[in-house]
Write a structure and sequence with these properties.
Blueprint lengths: L5 E13 L11 E4 L2 E6 L1 H16 L6 E3 L2 H12 L5 H15 L15 E3 L1 H12 L5 H7 L6 H6 L15 E3 L2 E3 L6 E7 L13 E19 H8 L3 H14 L6 H4 L7 E7 L22 H18 L6 E5 L9 H21 L1
Antiparallel strand pairs: 1-9, 1-10, 2-3, 3-7, 4-5, 6-9, 7-9, 8-9, 10-11
């Protein structure tokens, strides 16, 4: 029996005054944890930035697209397969493909689907081939939309409410980032001057406020490596490396021109586990108190102390641990961590194949 294999990623990162993820009122998102208000950045915001970086890491052809313009995409693939076909004929064949897929166009007559579809370039090409071959078997189209998933589809999953058979289980989970300490949102009052105003007008041309906070964030994500391997096969170790790289290096871009808040992680702890994924946010259930050394040092100590207690009393210690920051005796640079993780994942998957 193959053992479980999870890659857990823990990051502590300080962020200066910022508003990187806003709610419907324009305020920085928050959450109550441990009885106090914390800064929060949603997992959706971080995953959106990761998917953009995936295009740089893996190439656009290996990253999926979420769109209502499914008809347009399949039309393009049909045209690529047979450039001699007219635009009108390509559209008719694409409409037939959608019908065979069981996907309906919007009633607005705008050539868009009712809902967003998430699929890969390879899947769109396979669907185009089926309709060009005159295949009308719905099962064949379902197979085409399940095979050859893009990296981000395999990692983040896909849900199709109208046809659950097209659902794709996510191999990765990303937690909402929260501050390790209590926060209080603040307001910045600003004015804008009219450069061509009358000489006797000394007032501002615009007045406003922007809400912000600053925090030391704890971020966590995990990848079910064996689940990922079901969809990506031999590409799995590259995908895990790319996921780690994107999770650690990205940051949501809300109000970045106002605050220039882009920072790098201060502490990274990567663990390869064979039992279960373990979110270590419990280290900060008691909010960290700021002293003359700030929040970072205390947050790192709280994290390492909590991890040690958890390994002693409940979960087993990870198979491998890599990282940098205070508390690590064998510190590694981030490029070294990426290479070590990719090699370890490849070796673990190879061992299971031998078994």
């Amino acid at each position: 029996m193959k053992k479980n294999l999870y890659l857990d990623i823990h990051v502590i990162q300080t962020v200066p005054p910022s508003c990187i993820n806003r709610d419907d009122m324009g305020s920085p998102k928050t959450a109550v944890y441990g009885g106090v208000v914390r800064a929060r950045v949603s997992s959706q915001a971080w995953k959106h930035e990761m998917r953009k970086m995936f295009k740089e890491i893996f190439g656009e052809e290996n990253v999926g697209f979420r769109t209502k313009k499914v008809l347009q995409k399949i039309t393009e693939k049909i045209k690529e397969l047979d450039p001699s076909l007219s635009e009108e004929m390509c559209i008719k064949k694409a409409e037939k493909a959608l019908k065979n897929m069981g996907i309906s166009l919007s009633k607005k007559n705008d050539n868009k689907t009712e809902v967003l579809m998430f699929f890969s370039d390879a899947q769109a090409r396979d669907v185009a081939r089926l309709v060009m071959d005159g295949n009308e078997d719905k099962k064949e189209y379902q197979i085409a939309l399940k095979e050859n998933p893009a990296v981000d589809i395999a990692l983040f999953g896909r849900m199709v409410a109208s046809d659950p058979s097209l659902n794709f289980d996510a191999a990765a989970q990303v937690a909402h980032a929260i501050s390790t300490h209590k926060v209080q949102n603040e307001y910045d009052y600003f004015t804008a001057v009219d450069d061509i105003s009358e000489e006797d007008n000394s007032g501002a041309g615009h007045l406003g406020t922007v809400e912000y906070n600053s925090s030391t964030l704890y971020r966590y994500a995990t990848v079910n490596v064996r689940e990922l391997a079901k969809g990506l096969g031999n590409f799995t170790s590259d995908a895990v490396k790319g996921f780690l790289e994107a999770f650690v290096q990205t940051m949501p871009t809300g109000k970045q021109n106002t605050f220039a808040n882009r920072t790098c992680p201060d502490f990274v702890y990567v663990a390869l586990r064979t039992d279960q994924p373990v979110n270590l946010c419990g280290a900060f259930e008691k909010p960290v108190i700021s002293k003359e050394d700030g929040y970072l040092e205390a947050s790192e100590k709280a994290f390492l102390s909590y991890a040690a207690k958890l390994y002693e009393n409940y979960a087993s210690e990870p198979q491998n641990i890599w990282g940098f920051g205070d508390g690590f005796t064998d510190k590694m640079s981030f490029p070294q961590i990426l290479e070590a993780v990719q090699l370890a994942v490849k070796e673990k998957l190879s061992e299971s194949e031998v078994e």
